[in-house]
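Hi R.,

As promised on Friday, here is the backbone we talked about, encoded as structure tokens. Could you run it through your design pipeline when you get a chance and send me back a sequence?
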């Protein structure tokens, strides 16, 4: 395995317009049904959160849209 140093600048050097554009795309993905919250064995924290707060699919979609804008 090689050394895979990640460059983080591309994730921290964003303008407010970059963020707005990203959130706009993200919201469109949600509305088009192209986004979901991972719920597999590697995402136990997501599963626990969803079960604890009894969040159904409709609620997940609504909340994700609300917090992405």
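Update: got your reply. Pasting your designed sequence below so it's all in one thread:
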């Amino acid at each position: 395995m090689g050394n895979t140093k990640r460059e983080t600048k591309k994730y921290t050097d964003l303008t407010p317009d970059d963020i707005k554009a990203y959130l706009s795309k993200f919201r469109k993905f949600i509305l088009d049904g192209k986004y979901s919250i991972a719920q597999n064995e590697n995402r136990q924290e997501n599963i626990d959160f969803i079960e604890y707060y009894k969040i159904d699919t409709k609620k997940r979609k609504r909340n994700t849209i609300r917090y992405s804008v």
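One thing I noticed while checking it: The chain has one domain: 14-67.

Thanks again,
M.
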